Amino acid sequence: MKLLLLVSCAVACVALSFAWREPWIGGVGLLIGFVAMFTDRDDVRLDDERGSYETTKSVRNMRQRDIDR
Question: Which of 5, 33, 42, 67 is most deeply packed, by most CB within 10 A?
Fold first, then answer.
């Protein structure tokens, strides 16, 4: 929700800079766009966070032992 709000505010500022011919408003819009881009969280769960008993490190160790045999 926050990302959508920040991006729409950035687009509005850039559009206003063309309508009012004030370049600083476009600069503010670009800054808001960068803030939106870098504060966006990616909530992809990792294998370690899924509650499984085997972590990715332990799986890699088991596979490495199979290759060494």
Answer: 33
